[in-house]
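User:
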Amino acid sequence: MKVGVYSLKGRKIAEVELPPVFKTPVRLDLIKRAVLSAISKRRQPYGRDPMAGKRTTAISLGPGHGISRAPRIKGSGYSAAQRGAFSPSTVGGRLAHPPRSNKVIGEKINVKERRLAIKSAIACTAIKELVEARGHKITGIKELPIIVDEAIEKVNSTKEAIEALQALGLEEELERCKENIHMRSGRGKTRGRRYKKPRGPLIVIAKDEGIVAAVKNIPGVDIINVKNLNCELLAPGCHPGRLTVYSKSALETLKNR
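Assistant: Predicted structure:
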């Protein structure tokens, strides 16, 4: 299958054959597993202090004393004497089944499955129905995937980057990403997640010659080296079909891998 290669002005300047990776079958199950695995490995372990609720002299007297067998603090003649402690059913006692910091949180995935998931996610970027289903605005786009000349890697200003993306038919998509930024409801506002931002186009390059700094401040736009492609960027939220712009050199790299 051949697709057009476009200049930064949006004009078709050549045609190129898509690499075999774009013929990979769609595997939604593997893509979901790969994304969840990547997310789980970023979680921070947490757990209770192993000695919480156990710093006490309380012991249980056992049966036959006319009182419950709950552990009680030793002594007499002071307020804490004979007060229940240590047990999960007492005030200030230990937790019955506390979270442990040594729990393995990260979900594993087989290497071959992860590679197949990435290939499948790349193939999904060329399927119009999946791209539309993600909510991307593609009415001004001539064909998918979008292949652009290597000159995009040398763009070093945000203004030039926006003009190039608009010339490629992404004007509505950039507007969607900018207009739909909104404040999060709930406690997440105070936990470093104040705003919810849409995911827009993903730019895949083979070499950074200024483009990374140029697009980092454009709302919704992500950029990645083709060697570092992963399912989390290609299928945010486990939903494949992200609108993706490949540089011609990045496409050549995919063909050779």
